[in-house]
Write a structure and sequence with these properties.
114 residues; Jelly Rolls; six-stranded mixed beta sheet; four-stranded antiparallel beta sheet; 10 strands; 0% helix; globular
């Protein structure tokens, strides 16, 4: 799986933006752009091409996934959940989770490190 990092989010401060327009899809890849990166947490925009995903892993913090476009299957501790545009789910700390893009999809991932 190719993974590409975009620019930071400094240009977003103090103006309205459509997050869906800040990153594009790349076939066979997951594209990410960091919006906020602080010791206390991160906000990252992702664009997954259809069929791409993240294999099962755990994280030490809760993470909020907010789907901006498309549809993803998120499996948390063996339980698959379909999440579509406009919906959100919290992936709990220390629970194994995986993501699989059912269509091209974009999400904002907010991780609070405390």
């Amino acid at each position: 799986m190719a993974h590409h990092e975009g620019n930071g989010g400094g240009s977003l401060i103090g103006r309205a933006v459509d997050l869906r327009e800040l990153t594009g899809y790349q076939e066979g890849a997951v594209v990410s752009r960091t919006i906020i990166d602080k010791k206390t947490g991160t906000v990252t925009l992702f664009a997954f091409a259809e069929g791409q995903g993240l294999s099962e892993h755990t994280a030490p913090y809760d993470a909020l996934v907010h789907v901006l476009e498309g549809e993803v299957e998120i499996t948390i501790a063996g339980n698959p959940i379909r999440v579509k545009e406009g919906e959100a789910v919290i992936m709990p700390a220390h629970q194994p989770h995986a993501l699989r893009a059912l269509t091209n999809f974009k999400m904002v991932l907010t991780m609070i490190r405390s």
